[in-house]
Amino acid sequence: MSEPDYFGALENVSPVQTKATGPTGKLPLSDEILRNWSSGDLFGLTQSVGMGFDPRRVLGDQYLILSTQGGMRNPDGTPIALGYHTGHWEVGLLVQAAAEQVCKNDGVPFAAFVSDPCDGRTQGTQGMFDSLPYRNDAAMVMRRLIRSLPQRKGVIGIATCDKGLPAMMMALAGSSNLANVLVPGGVTLPPTVGEDAGKVQTIGARYSRGEMSLEEASLEGCRACGTPGGGCQFLGTAATSQVVAEALGMTVPHAALAPSGQPIWTKLARDSAEASRQMVLRGQSLRDVLTDDAIFNAMLIHAAVGGSTNLLLHIPAIAAAAGLKRPDAAAFRKVNQMVPRFVDCLPNGPVGHPTVRLFLAGGVPEVAWHLRELGLLRADAITITGKTWNELIDQWRASDRRQVCRDRLVEADGVDPDEVIIPPAEATRRGMTSTVCFPSGNLCPEGSVIKATSIDPSVIDEDNVYRKRGPARVFTTERAAIAAIKGQTEPAIKAGDVIVLIGRGPLGCGMEETYQITSALKYLSFGKEVALITDARFSGVSTGACIGHIGPEALAGGPIAKVRDGDIIEIEVDRVSLTGRVDLVLEPGAAETTVQQRFAARGPHPDLAVEAEMPADTRLWAALQQVGGGTWGGCVYDVDEIVATLEAGLKARQGQ
């Protein structure tokens, strides 16, 4: 293989140009502009026409279209360079549609991009150590980009997936004095024949355990994404974030979960650009929308749909960015006690419909209507449309759009929309329970989280309580745990075990997402008989008896650090009262008199340590978010607390 000739003759023999004519025409300046505008504003006009913009239009209102676009596509949609995930692959089409709408109204569109990683692509890899920290980094960069366009009237934020979308919401909330609107990037379609994008992430575990062939794994791994763009087909973190964005009032109505690449999807971008302009004309901003009532509605709709536990990190972070009170575990518990889940969407059952069916069944407006009927929705909250939820719901119920979408679901898939968004009374009659429970106990004195609605019904007792008692299998790395689940190490994980995965919280590795473990347990034949407790977090598509966010985390002195193989763990989760516990218990006749004595006699697990490959910038994120309230505070940067802590630390060190 020959090396490139860096200094060979140029292919183009014509001379290299050293000057050019420049744009024709003239800027529409005035005496007032020249006397009072900053040099930066004036030079901005020069650069705009330098990029080819019509000089007669440069004084129009400026709007920033900020997106998470990734990859590069040919005009026909084929790849020139791949993105990290389907969720940002087609987002450029939304940018184009929004920009065209801005131009239609004589505005000046700007576009900037802050691409995002893929939690699916980084499962089980070192890339997961950057996943949650990325959210804060991206939000800061996005806010800097917003501030760096000084004359912007509003921001149209376009994002789709697990961390880019929460980051975008944080960025828009942090600049809420502007006419900001969010455009969810939609969802990919399931394959006509094949597994969904959640189940297909378990082909390695199922093949290793002999539960599928190499041919089956190869086939399913190829065909899971039915279309090239959009977030996943399940109500994981990406799709739940889209639902929460709409519940907050940050989007135009019926925006979340639209099928990527289709006309009903691109229309959302045009409508959103127009909504931002209308906000400017009304003298409104996102600050009018993001209120305590909006945060409450987001938690309420999150509970009703059975959303991802990752939103327990993101909703408080959005509230903090907006300058609102951050909801805590008690607030989420109270909301979940008010309303049972009444949406049947993957990864939850009983059927598990893909997200596009939730959209066609009516999406967020339909869910909001049911919640209003229950007297729970704070329906006077305003949205970016300038209308309240009361007004939008009244319009939605009588709209052609609602009827057309619901009819299409029946026609295309033969599914009754009321089997996807089930009337709440019927959902309760069928035994559907609330979404999130917060167990405590001697292994998690500060609390923990379980998506109680997604535990396999066959292991739930008749009184709707999940009870588990089994020996601990302790792991300090996800790599070791998944190897035992695959049967690649001895002893292999077996039915009845309680996996205890420690040192995977913020201080240990950046609080990785452990979906390759939880998904394997869901789809392996014996997996429902295994429980997992960890100080890590879970993917939104995780199901089963998986308890995460254990606090304090092991490396912060949590008692979970002292568990050893063979210890007996007892778990109880009441899916009705939303109470639960996770305890180390003593065998009958054990020599110790108390669990506390056992803990006192032990140090941390000998293998417990900060992840050797943890990046320095993730360590910095972990330290900063710990000061700001840690996991239960949304993993945010509380600047006042950080500054106070640094000042106290400096004084203490000087005193030494």
Automatic annotation (TrEMBL):
Keywords recorded for this protein, A-Z: Lyase
Sequence ranges assigned to domain Dihydroxy-acid/6-phosphogluconate dehydratase N-terminal in this UniProt record: 85-391
Residues that span the membrane, as ranges: none
Superkingdom of this protein's organism: Bacteria
Pfam families in the cross-refs: ILV_EDD_C, ILVD_EDD_N
Dihydroxy-acid/6-phosphogluconate dehydratase C-terminal domain: residues covered: 438-583
PANTHER family in alphabetical order: D-XYLONATE DEHYDRATASE, D-XYLONATE DEHYDRATASE YAGF-RELATED
Family stated for the protein in its record: Belongs to the IlvD/Edd family.
Protein name: YjhG/YagF family D-xylonate dehydratase
